[in-house]
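pinned: reference chain
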Amino acid sequence: MRVIAGEFRSRQLVAPAGTQTRPTPDRLRESLFSALGDRVEGSVFLDAYAGSGSVGIEALSRGAKRAVFVEKHPQALAALRTNLEKLGIGSRATVINSAAARALRQQVADIVFLDPPYDRPTEYDAALESVGECGLLLVQHSVRQSLPEVCGELARVRQMRQGDNVISFYESEALR
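pinned: its C-alpha cells
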C-alpha cells in the first residue's frame, strides 16, 4: 500500500496485521482523489474507520490542511500512528480512538470519508445518522449494499464503482 500522489507520492504505508480492516485499494483511492480534484486543497478531511489512515494521508498529501482519523481497533491505531510518524505529519493530524458514530457527532469537517466494515450494515446506519456538519460526505460500501438517497441534509449526487467497491458522494443542496 502506498500514497498515490502529492507531497508523499510513492511512499509506502504499513497496514495493520490481521483481517480486522480492509484497506481502500490504491486504484479506488486514485479515482476518488481524481474526482475530488482541487476540493481537497486546504480542507479539513475526516477519515472514519481509518484503518492504516491511507485515505486521510492521501488527502494530506494532496493539500488538505488537516486530517482527523477515527479508529478504535488497536492494531489499526498502531499502523496509523506509525504511518503518521514515518511521514512526519503528526502536527497536521488528529487521531481519535473511539467508535465512529460517537466521534462523528462531535466533529466538523469539509469532507467526511466513511468506510465501515462491509459485513456490519448497522455500522453504516449509525455512522450516517451521526455525521456532523460537512460539505461533502463520501461513503465506501459494497455493491451489494444499498444506501439511502438522502442522509440528513445531504443528498446522494454520484456513485463511483470499482469491482466490489462503491463510493457514494453526498452533498448539501446549498453546495450543489
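why pinned: The chain has one domain: 26-175. The helical segments are 26-36, 54-61, 74-87, 100-104, 121-130.
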